[in-house]
Amino acid sequence: ESIKTVLTSPENRILIKRMLIKCADISNPCRPMEQCIEWAGRISEEYFAQTDEEKRQGLPVVMPVFDRNTCSIPKSQISFIDYFITDMFDAWDAFADLPNLMQNLDNNFKYWKGLDERKLRSLRPPPE
C-alpha cells in the first residue's frame, strides 16, 4: 500500500526512475561474485589507464588512488561499498525487498575484506 502511495505522484515516479538508473550504474558490488570481480577488474583498469594518461601528459592526477603501482583493488572496493553502496541499497531493500542483491553485496564485501586482511592488492588471491 505504501508503495502505491509513493508511485501515485509523477514527481515521485521520476525520482524513483532516476534513482534506479543511478543504482544500476553503480551496482557492481551487488552482482554475483564472479561478475563483481570481473567488472571490478575492468573498472580498475579503466581508472589505471586514465591515471597513466594524466601522468604521461603532465596533467593533475584526478584519482591518485588508482595508480597501478600502488593501488589496492580490495581497499578501493571496500571504500566504494562503504561510501556509496551500502546505505543506498539498504534503502532500496527496505523499499522493494531485494534479498538476492543484498546477499551478493554481503558476499562481495566479505570477499574484498578477506583479501585486504591478507594484505593482498589484487583481484584474486594467488593460486595455492
UniProtKB/TrEMBL annotation:
<dbReference type="GO" id="GO:0046872">
    <property type="term" value="F:metal ion binding"/>
</dbReference>
<dbReference type="InterPro" id="IPR036971">
    <property type="entry name" value="PDEase_catalytic_dom_sf"/>
</dbReference>
<dbReference type="GO" id="GO:0004114">
    <property type="term" value="F:3',5'-cyclic-nucleotide phosphodiesterase activity"/>
</dbReference>
<feature type="domain" description="PDEase">
    <location>
        <begin position="1"/>
        <end position="119"/>
    </location>
</feature>
<dbReference type="GO" id="GO:0007165">
    <property type="term" value="P:signal transduction"/>
</dbReference>
<dbReference type="Pfam" id="PF00233">
    <property type="entry name" value="PDEase_I"/>
</dbReference>
<keyword id="KW-0378">Hydrolase</keyword>
<protein>
    <submittedName>
        <fullName>PDE8A phosphodiesterase</fullName>
    </submittedName>
</protein>
<keyword id="KW-0479">Metal-binding</keyword>
<dbReference type="InterPro" id="IPR002073">
    <property type="entry name" value="PDEase_catalytic_dom"/>
</dbReference>
